[in-house]
Amino acid sequence: MVGKNASYDGSTLIARNEDAGEAVHPKKFVVIHHEDQPSEYHSKLSKFSIQLPDNPVRYTSVPDAAVDEGVWGEAGVNAHNVAMSATETITTNSRVLGADPLVKNGLGEEDLLTITLPYISSARDGVERVGSLLKKYGTYESNGIIFSDVNEIWYMETAGGHHWVAQRIPDDAYVIAPNQTGIQEVKFDDPDNFMFSKDLLKFVEKYHLNLTSNFNFREIFGSDTQLDHHYNTPRAWYGQRYFNPESVKDLSPMSNKLPFINYADRKITIEDIKFVLSSHYQDTPYDPFAPGADYKTNPYRPIGFNRNQELSILQLRPYVAEDHAAIQWLAFAGNPFNTIVPFYTHILDTPDCYRDTTTTLDSHNAYWANRLISLIVADHYQELMADVEDFQLKSLAYGHQRIAKVDKAVSGKKGGELMQALSQANERTADRIMKDTEELLTKLVTRASDNSRGAFTREHY
């Protein structure tokens, strides 16, 4: 999360990795129009059901390719230029879960984008809608949820079946949130910057949950386990080390003292966010791709790794017309080896090579092409990573060029004409990136094959 005064161009920037439980979990990029939004929603996982409002607006989504497993929309922007990331699975301690148990048939990550994003007109609206849903239905898991509009970013964390806190991210700050409760000091007399379930204070007092004199949401509701020290905190440590290394120079990757709100020593760019969300402890002793490293003994979970499925950076720009201000930068599969592509969200449809993902391998599809690249390069990192980095540099430059060109080309267009123009622009962007991706894949397969295990030539005689 990057506040508008902390970003390079005044945009609010929110971003997320989606990591599945397995390495191959195909994703697609779609736009849902109001007529395609269901009036009644049924969860596949928890059997949660809800009657939805009758006024949905258009929104983008990055759902699973396997429709029988539920939606899992994860990240998108709606027609009001409100962005949402749903969700980041986080942790809650046993005392809280004993007082407010999770709800088996409640809502969860599978559902939240679909039942929230089409019905909100601001980031604050998003918090209020999810808060009301939690009160009525409860949740079967603890989650972190991000909402943004062109002015504000709100981060919401649930705890137990029904309780939650949301904090407005300061405009000049950034936040890196691993899979762990993060919000710290809560100010109950500051409604401009904090929202919370109405009975939160009484709940904490009734069940004797606060062990200190202040109200630190992370300490009261979160966890601080050995798993956290190896799976969660090292990722926040590395991200903070990247943006302002002095702040963590005396802290270890396992420290539970890492701050939630942070302030970088420079403006933060799209490239910075992509680097952090693709990182694997480069230039530290914990990099699994360093020469001679044994990834099986690495003590810390990287950010960029084999179970990445999609990365979305949702950019809401204040300096262009509202009807083409929102951009969803998107990448599929393993983040160390992919590139991020800018797509306008005020569109009629998404490019077919990003939209029509199936569960069967297809090298002409963006997810599968990048999955193949990540598989090949992970096993030939030192030989092939220079080719990948050259591709990433050129494709990111192309992405910025496309935004400038398309902004100029659509200036003055409105309504359906604009949506058609932006949809066609996205198609051309995707076609170029897919052409370059397929060329990279060909090069990597060729080079890796020459040096594969069991290679033998006549020169060996």
Automatic annotation (TrEMBL):
Keywords (A to Z) from UniProt: Dipeptidase, Hydrolase, Protease
InterPro entries: C69_dipept_A-like (IPR047804), Peptidase_C69 (IPR005322)
Catalyzed reactions: an L-aminoacyl-L-amino acid + H2O = 2 an L-alpha-amino acid
Record Pfam families: Peptidase_C69 (PF03577)
Catalytic activity, EC: 3.4.-.-
Family per similarity comment: Belongs to the peptidase C69 family.
Protein name: Dipeptidase
